[in-house]
Write a structure and sequence with these properties.
By secondary structure, the protein is of the alpha/beta class. It is built from 9 helices and 10 strands. Strand 9 and strand 10 form a beta hairpin. Helix 4 crosses helix 5 and helix 5 packs parallel to helix 6. The longest helix has 18 residues. The relative contact order is 0.17.
């Protein structure tokens, strides 16, 4: 069953004028990107820095507006929804960012941070919010007592677990993970990746997993898309893509980490 359907997605950015009477230059961050993601599966997006990975993540999360194209979640075009309806739909898709500390407000307790996405769900009472926050903290291997602490009291790996708990608290169907383990030590990376796979089996959500680390993508993804300068140049299962790549750019990526 198709959960996410991205159709002919493009994004242009106008850059500052170099000269007063010249038109502003245009940066083509994404060009005609299309793919689908089934419920309960993991799709990896790989490519070098500046290839459009994070732009794609922002468009899928409806944090930016495409120049053209559609992002459909369960058949609904997110960018065509009025703001109140988009806000209601956000419970179904959440994001885990690269920097586990930068994405957590240091002024707030973990209870406030993890429970914040539930504020867009008025049917969830304060007692239910606390219960859900406790449940997701337990799911990521932390304790209920940690709800009263602040981000600086945790290690990098624990903070990323908190970020994952916050993404889980609305019980979403899709999680966009933008370089979720690149800021962590190798040993902690393995713990977080195993956790994400266990949670996927437990809750059945789909992951859009964005990374430059091909070994990580090979480990966790069912399908991989290779982006070059905002375009899809190759797509396939990782065991095939990483052993018999057909596009020169994919071959170059693999050679750079060999």
């Amino acid at each position: 069953m198709t959960l996410l359907d991205v159709r002919h997605l493009s994004r242009q950015y106008r850059l500052p004028r170099e000269r007063l009477l010249q038109p502003p230059p245009v940066l083509q961050a994404l060009s005609d990107v299309s793919f689908t993601l089934e419920a309960g599966r993991t799709l990896g997006i790989v490519g070098e820095s500046g290839c459009g990975k994070s732009t794609l993540a922002r468009l899928v999360m409806a944090l930016d507006v495409p120049t053209s194209g559609q992002v459909l979640l369960d058949g609904q075009d997110l960018h065509a929804l009025p703001p109140p309806e988009l806000q209601r739909q956000r419970r179904h898709f959440q994001m885990v960012f690269q920097d586990p500390y930068g994405s957590l407000d240091p002024r707030h307790t973990i209870a406030r941070i993890v429970g914040e996405p539930l504020e867009a769900m008025p049917e969830v009472t304060r007692a239910e919010r606390l219960q859900r926050s406790t449940e997701v903290l337990d799911a990521v291997g932390l304790r209920a007592a940690d709800l009263h602490k602040y981000p600086h009291e945790f290690s990098g790996g624990q903070r990323q677990r908190i970020a994952i708990a916050r993404a889980l608290v609305t019980r979403p169907r899709l999680i966009v993970a933008d370089e979720p383990v690149s800021a962590l030590d190798v040993s902690v990376q393995a713990q977080v990746l195993n956790l994400m796979q266990d949670l996927q089996q437990q809750y059945g959500m789909a992951y859009l997993f964005i990374s430059h680390d091909l070994a990580v993508v090979d480990l966790v993804c069912d399908e991989v898309i290779v982006l070059q300068q905002g375009r899809i140049v190759e797509q396939g299962p990782p065991d095939l893509l990483f052993t018999r790549p057909s596009h020169p750019y994919t071959q170059q990526l693999l050679a750079s980490v060999a």
